[in-house]
Amino acid sequence: EDLPGVDAAKGFYQKYEPKEVLGKGLSSVVRKCICKQSGVEYAVKIMDMSGSNEDNANISPQQLRDEVHREVSVLKRVSGHPYIVDLIDVYESTTFIFLVFELCHNGELFDYLTSKITLSEKRVRSIMKQILEAVDHCHQLHVVHRDLKPENILLDENLNIKLTDFGFAKILSEGERLWEICGTPGYLAPELLQAGMLEAHECNGYSFEVDAWACGVIMYTLLCGCPPFWHRRQILMIRLICEGRYSFSSPEWDNITDEAKDLISKLLVVNPNNRLTISQALNHPVFRAQRHSLSRGM
Length: 298
Ligand code: ADP
Ligand code: MG
Prior knowledge:
Helix content: 25-40%
Oligomer: single chain
Radius of gyration: 20 Å
Order of helices and strands: HEEEHEEHHEEEEHHHHHH
Number of strands: 9
Distance between the termini: 48 Å
Shape: globular
Strand content: 15-25%
Bound molecules: adenosine-5'-diphosphate, magnesium ion
Largest sheet: 5 strands, antiparallel
């Protein structure tokens, strides 16, 4: 496979100087780094391939490496979009893989949200439009993301979004169905939970629609500051999701427009066949209204 700039780990350290930790995942650490020659800052995702990491105890080093190669091939496929993080460089050694990304100076949408508690509806509309455009780009290239959530949506210096973390993403062939359970509990679509719980002959698996569900969860969360499906006992939260039971409760939702609620309610539809697709969501009136007010110079 023609990975960009595949090289030994020392190649990375020759070119970049690693700095402070920006984030941590299951098998990776993300650090700021500086290109020694240009002084430009980047983010590097350093993945431990040695198998010594206890979180990866149940997966072989070769499986782990295959998964990172899958992440890289997806990144190469979707990169070059204004709302998707750009992969700059890849360095691969026997024990580590380094993925160098453009740096998103304003960190996670998650932290931005918690610092503000809730965002204005106008702001949420503009963020959601960017998220949907990024996901639409992925779907058009047959890539399903499977882990959309505010921790994986970063903000650049202008507070525009950059979608990242394609660690669970997959390129689907025509009509392909998926069965494996992956992602983050509160954002999982009902059909994905079902695929994880039922035998293969009892259900039809899942596909791109799981990303549209996650977008509904994200939009709800951005507008009211709390998730639509939550119970401290996870099994009961899963039941709420499978039944599609959530509400626009007072007072948090009193000042949110019917248009915004309408889009959320058309994304949080239990039957994936009746759920809006990402491109349908982009055509929802909630975004037309925004274009209108923008054209009046607001
Ligand atoms: P994981 O698969 O381990 O979740 P991510 O790719 O989501 O790894 O990165 C983990 C965290 O690192 C992100 O949630 C974010 O806080 C930070 N991070 C990742 N990439 C960047 C980037 N390009 N710029 C700034 N921070 C980043
Ligand atoms: Mg992540």
